[in-house]
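Consider the following input, taken from an annotated entry for DUF295 domain-containing protein (Triticum aestivum).
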Amino acid sequence: MMMASVSAWSDLPRELLRIIIAGLPDPIDHARFRAVCRSWLSVPYPIKLPIVVHPTGFLLRPFGSGPHDIFPLPENERVIGSTDGFLARHLTDVDRNRHTYTLLNPFSRTLVELPELDTLIGDVSESFRIHKVLMQSGLDGLVAIRTNNQNHPIILLKRGKGVWLPKPRHQPFTRIIDVAFLRDTLYAITQAENLISFRVTFDSKGIPTVTSIKRVITGPIGNVEKDKDALRKRTGDYIINDGMHFADDVERPHVVVVTIWYLVESQGKLLMVRREMQRPCGHEEGFTRKVEVFEADISASTWVAVSSGLHGRALFLSKRSSKSCFAGGEIEEDAIYFIDNGEVFNMRSKIISPADKSFGFSAMWVFLPGSF
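Applying the prediction step yields:
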């Protein structure tokens, strides 16, 4: 009697694999599917919205059902950033007053410790916050960290090698409100809409260092940062804000206008998004009333307004993680998704959808591998 041959999982027909992955509603299951073998990894999966993660560790679906745990987080641990599929986590040891930091891939469960960061900012005040963690090219690349502290406004880290810091309270680092990598260069913007480039090299031990700083674009806004300096002189507050500018509405005295800036790389171009929100005085929630997108023309040292759309892509913006992704499936082409209240701005129609959910400015996008 002949035994039936047993086929390997990798030999399943691609048509069948497409049907299987299309029937998986959970993006995490998509990642697990692609981790089975190389054959399954090559199967294209439906384009879906990225995951939203709250600092407490709750995973949420944009425009979908309620939250559930992505992994159990103790009370003294928080998610503080999201970059290239990894979540940056902050653990506080209350008894020893120490802080430790790790990177976790929620799909593969890969956990990476950051002892260089523990040594540098392991003993900080309770007001210390990390605003953004950005990896250049995976775990072995450069990691840029933006904080709210003028003594450590920007931290550049090479895992296993060391860190670089600017001088305390040194400009232009204390004015930076967002950062992004474009190829091998780190760029930053200020509230005055200046674009600054940082050339980073590595010494013989692999420790990063900034060898040149250049203002490549001088923005049109001249009074915003002066107002910030005046506020600090009055209050003695040297904590850097999270890149928001508040102003009273001249025509409506009970309305506050909030301007927020984002910097994001898209298809080899550097984009700045200027978003204007309106909210009642004393309220945290509001709605977007104006969105403008500009491309950095570095050779001409100017910002160029973008009105022709995103060329088959969409932007997902938050203060902690922003990304340009392929459009299609659940993702609307030429759309800008704002994480804090779930609004979606269509660049072609100029229509802003009503706020869907209030995730808050501390929430962050988590992008599936291959979605960008």
